[in-house]
Amino acid sequence: MTAVTIPPEITEAMKKVKHTIVVLSGKGGVGKTTVATNLAMSFAKKNLQTGILDVDIYGPNVPKLLGLEGQHPAADGEKIRPIMGPLGVKVMSMGFLLQRNDDAVAWRGPLVARAISQFLSDVKWEELDVLVVDLPPGTGDEILSILQLIPDMSGVIIVSTPQEVAVLDASRAIQLVKKMNLPVLGIVENMAEFVCPSCGQVHKLFGEGAAKKASDTYSVEHLGTLPFDPRVISLSDEGTPFVVKEPNSKVAKDFEILVQKLITKISIQV
Q1: Which residues of 62-95 are buried (b: 16+ CB within 10 A; e: fewer)?
Q2: Helix (H, G, I), strand (E, B), or coil: what is residue 21?
Q3: How far is CA 29 from CA 94, 159, 160, 194, in A?
Q4: Given a cut of 60, is residue 109 above it in pLDDT?
């Protein structure tokens, strides 16, 4: 795959970001953005200076999940200051630039690529220990553009559900990242199980074993599983990060385990 020279203005803008973690899924509907936002919050709970960049141009849902809808970033000279979210997490999203929350972004590829480049070069992040980047689903042109433009990327996390078709698409995403010679930090299996609140019985809603098989096949780490909890949906709709609201839940504890693995894996100084 042809290498792309990263514009110097992007390198300059992101030089104070110590670690950049990209969250990618092979298909939509696997909870990628929910994982990305709660991952960022879990890093912030470790007292790490954290940011989240939502470059899902066509479905910028991070403002909704963090209760930041309707806000607009302020200019700082020629740069844009990110919005301050829960736990002091700095947030930038295409959603902040739309006049209405339900506006459709009907852009062709070159315009999307230019917007992504500006997102990376024009946002004033300042000092960050971790920047979580939420990508669009799939393996299209937008994905290539973003992955080629992020300097000194720490690695990519692939999000999947346990069902075979989701894991098949996740496998395609793994192969794309590897073809680009970028590090794959591992695969996260979302909505892996549901624990009945009444009887405590564990239900495997989408089967099991496929994600582990994919991790073995493509020699990437199976970073862990995240359970399905209906409260995640209701709190996300309210704009409240689940791991902040329910810190003692199994979901929050599993995110804490995931974050600790990543801290060790890419040597983040806490």
Answers
A1: bbbbbbbeebebeeeeebbbbbebbbebbbbbbb
A2: strand
A3: 20, 10, 9, 17
A4: no
What is the distance between the alpha carbons of residues 69 and 206, in angstroms, rounded to a whole number? 32
pLDDT score at 163? 78
Rounded to the nearest integer, the mean pLDDT of the chain is 86
Q: What torsion, rounded to 10 degrees, do the Cα atoms 246, 250, 252, 257 define?
A: 160
| Beta bridge pairs of residue 245 | none
Length of the chain: 270
Q: Any bridge partners for residue 157, and if so which? A: 23, 186
The pLDDT, as a whole number, for residue 112 is 66
Evaluate whether 23 touches 134 at the Cβ level (below 8 Å).
yes
What is the longest distance spanned by two Cα atoms in the chain?
A: 58
Please tell me the number of Cα atoms within 13 Å of 252 on its side-chain side.
14
Q: To the nearest whole percent, how much of the chain has pLDDT over 90?
A: 43
Hey, what domains does the chain have and what are their CATH numbers? 8-265 (3.40.50.300)
Query: Cα–Cα distance between 40 and 58 in angstroms, integer?
Result: 21
Rounded CA separation 102/124 (Å): 26
Structure tokens at 31: 């909870």
**156-207 pLDDT per residue, tens:** 999 988 877 878 888 888 889 998 999 999 999 998 888 776 776 777 777 6
Write the single-letter amino acid at 178. K
